[in-house]
Amino acid sequence: MLFEKIVSPRTTAAVALCLVLSSAPLVACSGQSSAGEGEAPTATSQSAAVDVSSWKTLGDAFAVQTDSLSSGWDEHYYVSVFKAGDSIVRVVGKLDADSYAKIEAVDWSKEDAEKQLAEATDAVPLVSADDLTSELVSQDELDKYVGKKGEDLIDDGWTFQSYYMTGGDQTGTYFAKGDLVYMITFNISVSDDVDDGGASVMGATVAEAEFGGASDAATDPSRVG
Fold first, then answer.
1. Cβ contact 183:140 at 8 Å
2. Closest C-alpha among 213, 49, 199 to residue 134
């Protein structure tokens, strides 16, 4: 299952809301601290591209959503990255005071939270819609990093995002490449309170790597425009 982190900019840290709503059109089980754990879409030449040109509202975009990865908003924009079949799409909606208030009023403790969110975002006009599928690093390419060092990822243009698994024999991290993030596991043990911006894994060996979801930057509304 993929996980979604729904982030309000009023929070100062990543907030994961696990809404076990796998059948919902807008919200899946959440957390980009686990940034969308699950299988990556299959990016092949046979995969039909999503036609985003006809979308006018967030409702139009979410109508073709098959899995949710991550969303964020402020009083100006609602940004979401989601799967549409074999494609990964990023959409930006322009909020007004009324739509922002409705999104803020969604009660995530209720069973109908996904319905509340759908109603709040349905008519929000789109600013942009982009197919990110071409950015996806294939599993074959990810496997080539096994045995390499964290610093090799940095040299290849990756950005350390956060730790998600600490205190054990191995350490789990999120590294971003473009708008997408990947779960990179290293053969090293670090303390649970580590906060060093990834320095601990720069010289460590990669044990495994897999697709994680949307990067924090991809759904940061303050980066729009």
1. no
2. 49
**Range 100-109 average pLDDT:** 97
Q: How many residues belong to the chain? A: 225
Greatest distance between any 2 Cα atoms in the chain: 52
Does this model's pTM top 0.70? My answer is yes
* Pairing, β 77-84 against β 206-214: unpaired
pLDDT digits 0-9 by tens, 52-89 = 999 999 999 999 999 999 999 999 999 999 999 999 99
Beta-carbon contacts of 159 under 8 Å, excluding residues fewer than 6 positions away, are 175, 176, 177, 215
Question: CA 210 to CA 172: how far, in whole Å?
Answer: 11
